[in-house]
Amino acid sequence: MAARFIGLYQRTDSGPPLRSCKQLPDGQRSAAQTQHHIRVCNKAAAVLSGVLRMSQSVPGKLCWFLHFRVMLSNADEIIEMQMRNDSTDPRSGATFYQRYHTLEDIYDWINRTAKDYPNTVKVILVGSSHEKRPLYALKLSLNNRPNKKAMWIDCGIHAREWISPAFCLFFVHYSLLFYNQNQAMTQILDNMDVYVLPVMNPDGYKYTWTNDRMWRKNRFPKKGTPCIGVDLNRNFDANWCTRGASDYPCSEIYCGAFPESEPESQAVANFLRSHKDSIQIYLSIHSYSQMLLMPYSCTMDEAENHSELYEMVKQAAENIRRYYRNIYTYGPGAKTIYLAPGGSDDWAHMLGIKYSFTFELQDRGRYGFLLPPSHIQGACNEALTAVKTIALKVMEKSQASTSSRQTV
Ligand code: 0X9
Ligand code: ZN
């Protein structure tokens, strides 16, 4: 049975994490921002990232006092609208890249793109998921220069962050369309290949379209518990499962049985390991909260190239602000957001990919994971600005170091 969402909520207390609560009566779906206080008992449910999730009754007698504020009272309608938007609705003027897409549509799009650009786009099967879905990455290679460096971008580690795969699709489209049109893009693609993995967690993504729009983890069925899924961004070997991750399989930040226990994280880690000499930049796209994060998230320690990374995210945020009047915060993950070990960005950095980042795209909480399709374009443009800023800066640094080596 699909989980139902009756609203987006913000907790106004700082009580313990909710394990149990009761469906709100209809009468309580009142105006946004009004404070509510209710007693809730014997329902498996949770308030996660501002979303009050409901499911069936559970035995036991657990009651909580819940204090909350309604942020979005029509979450179910919004979800339905975003799914309807996938089919070509003649009333909607939105283009393909201004809509969200099902996993099947994304697979079709991958094949179509490779067919349409046979000389520049190659499909690479990097692995497969628990439920045996393929993990396809696209390699964009705009010329055959020898010893080209590369950038890796992955999207959709977290299933419910739909803007993330939407960005990967947009980025590929933009690169192919604007090579030789946009100066920055041309320079970047002349100097580096780009690997784009549009959906790193296909099982989870599929599940958000069919069962539970707020699903985050993969779909690993843990034997001996009713709980499913590992948080792939806690499953990499970077201070794995320390503070900021959980070894409790029902947790949203469950780290898995051991580092890279999951086929999805292992596939990405294997690919990066075998291409680490060419891949210079690692980018992982998430949402939401408008942040440009750099290592480390798994420790409060500073990365050895902290200052150059900080300069890059700062400049990227300044460019977004200048061009789009939108605010992004930036800095090392642990200090900017929270301690979160086992993440792909920290692991890639420790592997030697020194320019490693996580972007948290729009918004700052108004719609959260339910970002309306009409915001896709704006969110993607902002992220693209950050990608360009960082890639150009990295190129500038490598060119400077090559020419200084040549002059010595
Ligand atoms: O907690 C996460 O995995 C990311 N935030 S999200 O809301 N998209 O879940 C932040 C990831 C930052 N980087 C690492 N934790 N390594
Ligand atoms: Zn995420």
From TrEMBL:
Taxonomic superkingdom: Eukaryota
GO CC annotation: extracellular space
InterPro entries xrefs: CARBOXYPEPT_ZN_1, CARBOXYPEPT_ZN_2, CPB2, Peptidase_M14
Residues annotated as catalytic: 360 (proton donor/acceptor)
UniProtKB keywords: Carboxypeptidase, Hydrolase, Metal-binding, Metalloprotease, Protease, Zinc
Peptidase M14 domain segment(s): 99-394
Any GO BP: proteolysis
GO MF: metallocarboxypeptidase activity; zinc ion binding
Cofactor(s) the protein needs: Zn(2+)
Family from the record: Belongs to the peptidase M14 family.
Record-linked PANTHER family: CARBOXYPEPTIDASE B2, PROTEASE FAMILY M14 CARBOXYPEPTIDASE A,B
Name listed for the protein in its UniProt record: Carboxypeptidase B2 (plasma)
Taxonomy of the source species: Eukaryota, Metazoa, Chordata, Craniata, Vertebrata
